[in-house]
Amino acid sequence: QVQLVESGGGLVQAGGSLRVSCVASGGTFSRYHMGWFRQAPGKEREFVASISSSGDSTYYADSVKARFTISRDNAKSTVYLQMNSLKPEDTAVYYCAVDNYGVAPKNQYEYDYWGQGTQVTVSS
């Protein structure tokens, strides 16, 4: 069983930056493909970014490409999401998740374990 704990969310003005983190425990972190998803009020959860187990491959939703950067530190069992040039439409609860296989990195149904989420609010 893998446990994931996100942190780093908060309130930021439009154009600002935030970095959210997710620490994993209970498994072999370096084997896992990791993803970030988000869910805004009244909307379905959507893919944001993902990273391969080695960190060599990354994937992004078009809406965040060139603004967000996903990275990982396998020694710390942590995955990060650096968010720059934030927009009000980025407001959501951000979740990290574990994918054991990395076959379809943008598909939330491929992910097996989820954190509790961290709120990111961007004011205009």
Could you walk me through the main structural features you see in this protein, from its secondary elements to its overall organization?
This protein has 124 residues and is mostly beta strands. It has no helices and 11 strands. The protein has strands at 3-7, 10-13, 18-25, 33-39, 46-51, 58-60, 68-73, 78-83, 92-99, 113-114, 118-123. The protein is globular and about 40 Å long. The termini are far apart.
In short:
The chain is mainly β.
Helix content: under 10%
Uncertain segments: none
How many beta-strand segments? 11
Number of helices: 0
The fraction of residues assigned to DSSP E strands is over 45%
The rough form would be described as globular
The largest sheet, given as strand count, sense and whether it forms a barrel, is:
7 strands, mixed
Question: What is the CA-based Rg, rounded?
Answer: 13 Å
Helix/sheet category: mainly beta
Q: Please tell me the overall pLDDT.
A: 96
Please give the alpha-carbon distance between the first and last residues. 40 Å
Note the run of SSEs as H and E.
EEEEEEEEEEE
Element layout with pairings:
Layout lengths: L2 E5 L2 E4 L4 E8 L7 E7 L6 E6 L6 E3 L7 E6 L4 E6 L8 E8 L13 E2 L3 E6 L1
Parallel strand pairs: 2-11
Antiparallel strand pairs: 1-3, 3-8, 4-5, 4-9, 5-6, 7-8, 9-10, 9-11
Keywords:
124 residues; mainly beta; 7-stranded mixed β-sheet; 4-stranded antiparallel β-sheet; 49% strand
